[in-house]
Structure prediction request, 321 residues.
Amino acid sequence: MDAVVLAGGYATRLWPVTKHRPKMLLPVGETTVIDRILTELEGDDRIEDVYVSTNERFAADFEAHVEEQGYEKPRLSIEETTEEDEKFGVVGALGQLVDREGIDDDLLVIAGDNLMGFDVSDFLDYFTEKGTPTLAAYDVGTREKAKSYGLVELDGERVVDFQEKPEEPNSTLVSIACYAFPEESIRFSEYLDGDNNPDEPGWFIQWLQSREDVHAFTFDDAWYDIGTPESYLEAVAWELDGGSLIAESATVEGSDIGENVHVLPDAKVVDSTVEESVIFSDTTVEDCEIRETIIDKDTHVANLALAGALIGAHTQITNGT
Prediction:
């Protein structure tokens, strides 16, 4: 079995923090979002090759990261885009990847920005048992949230209806970006040749479900789709579980560090209050009140009260100017 980890997005809703950094490499506790997935795939003997599907802009970042972490299975598969408006869509990119890499095995497809509370091995066990295309499904709790995802209707564990981003969802069970396909069900080319929507994989699942049996692996564990500052900080809070993580090389003086705060290496926090925030490396925070904020690397902020802010790298903001 092969695996594709989707890592080609430009994460514009997290700019400027992700303008020059793939969001999959954002820290969540001691690790990163994508490392949780790659580590599991590295250790699962059923997975032979792991293709990290990314774009030209971030290829060097992922290449360096994979080498630094010492993974053996992952290899990059690069989509020829450098900007959001050049993208082929997820299904379009998958179709190209399957052709480019000559994939002819069962296939796991998983989004590299998915923080999932369940083990990928449990999902693969379920897929092996069913022997059909399989998706992971999660109850998001509200119909308003369900509008942003693919809505799943089940008869037992079998998917009997699938609606991508419905305007009026009739339930709250949605598909997350985690799929497994038997070799004969990797029908991306057939789907795309029919002039179908090349964007979200849910459109492909909706098409496939009307042609063959699809099963759902439902789970109650945590799940975070890291696409916004809010969802990223929620994922960090889930990982830290009310605690704080302060790098050994960071400096904290005369400050009150509250819940779910991550201070990265060589950052400095002086005479400040910080809650529910991430402060990146080589950043200095002085005489500030910081809450639910992300401050990128090599930045200096002083004498400020910030809530829900997103501050890019190499920035200086002092005295409210």
In short: The helical segments are 33-43, 59-69, 90-101, 120-130, 143-146, 188-193, 201-209, 229-240. DSSP finds eight helices and 27 strands in the chain. The mean pLDDT is 92.
